[in-house]
Design brief:
This protein is mostly helical and 170 residues long. It contains 6 helices and no strands.
């Protein structure tokens, strides 16, 4: 029953299965490799954060929203809108997200036919420029549980410029 040919087939089958497993592992590591993983390769740092020379950091000067919004540039906001264009449209049709024409001063969650996540009610009743300003900084922080996957706009100038641009779109 267990002659040489049978043993050769069994050993060949085990070796073939092992080879397929190892090739699959190699392919998965190649496809899903996330960068520097300590595999002996030299990697340059993307950026360096200076810790300072021991002096206490001065807190950033708070500028009120009205002053920022008064100096907003709608043309620059149009360029910032490029980050929103993947999910939002300005022609009255919904994409992945609701359309944004007329969004400034519009009631939150009021676009008919769009399925909102419900988390946006934490932001307020309407998309006032101030509410948009705080929401656009970090949507996940402003409305925990929102389905909006955008990380946010950390620069204040980008946010006020975008809001000024959206205010011109009706």
């Amino acid at each position: 029953m267990f002659d040489t040919m049978t043993m050769t087939k069994v050993v060949g089958g085990v070796c073939g299965a092992l080879l397929i497993y190892l090739m699959g592992k190699w392919a998965a590591e190649t496809v899903y490799h996330m960068g520097a993983g300590g595999h002996g390769e030299e990697h340059a740092a993307a950026y360096v954060i200076e810790a300072g020379g021991g002096e206490p950091a001065q807190p950033a000067e708070e500028v009120d929203f009205a002053t920022l919004y008064a100096s907003a540039d709608a043309a620059a906001g149009e360029k910032v809108f490029g980050k929103c264009r993947a999910c939002h449209k300005l022609d009255g049709t919904d994409g992945t997200g609701p359309h944004l024409n007329g969004v400034v001063e519009r009631a939150i969650g009021s676009v008919g036919g769009f399925a909102y996540s419900g988390a946006l009610q934490q932001v307020g009743d309407a998309w006032t420029p101030e509410n948009l300003f705080h929401f656009l900084e970090s949507p996940k922080s402003a409305a925990p549980g929102t389905t909006m996957g955008f990380a946010g706009l950390p620069k204040e100038a980008d946010r006020v410029n975008l809001i000024a641009y959206l205010a011109t779109q009706s």
